[in-house]
Amino acid sequence: MTTKEMVYAALFAALISVFALIPPIPLGFIPVPITVQTLGVMIAGGFLGKKVGGIALLLFLVLVAIGLPVLPGGRAGLSVLVGPTGGYLLSWPIAAFCIGYATEKVWSRLKLWKMILINIVFGVLLINLIGAPFMAWVTNTSVWAGLVGGVAFLPGDCIKAVIAAIIIWQLKAISPIEVKANQ
Question: What sign does the dihedral 43-48-54-59 (CA atoms) show?
């Protein structure tokens, strides 16, 4: 890993941490709040690519695990990673990697609609398909109830997927993926 890639990973871990300053929206029927941080996950994967995007989110999880207050409400620690939100958080490096992988595959012919589709499939659906069953398991409810409760995230997450795609599209010329593609 180059120094430049390490800096990008650290910067995006910091960016996602800054998104924690935007207050979460608690839902009364599910123990997981709506946050803006998934926007950062999608941007990291689409802008940085699979390797650096995934590493950026792994670094973010390390920050959570060691107790730095990088989640909304200042939450942190290993207890968060094994609580109801743990599945969602643990899915973030996987989602960033998959978004980055898919983006790299279509980079030379990337269109805005493709980026939106990639973000919806890997940034919205994948995160919810990993996070909701984990939440159901931790809260001792049925997986079906977890998935149904997770539906509350879909409208906001789809909006974040579009916003992330637009940001990635606008920054395409300076993306590290572009540099790799030209080498």
Answer: negative
CA distance 162 to 129: 19
* pLDDT tens digits, 80-137: 999 999 999 999 999 999 999 999 999 999 999 999 999 999 999 999 999 999 999 9
Q: Which domain holds residue 61?
A: 3-182
Give strand ranges (E) for the chain. Answer: 25-27, 30-34
Give the domain CATH number at 132. 1.10.1760.20
Look at the chain and report how many structural domains it folds into: 1
pLDDT digits (tens, 9 = 90+) for 138-180: 999 999 999 999 999 999 999 999 999 999 999 999 999 876 6
CB atoms within 10 A of CB 35: 23
Dihedral over alpha carbons 92, 96, 98, 100 (to 10 degrees)? 180
pTM value > 0.85 = yes
Q: What are phi and psi of 30, to 5 degrees?
A: -145, 140
How far out from the chain centre does Cα 70 lie? 14
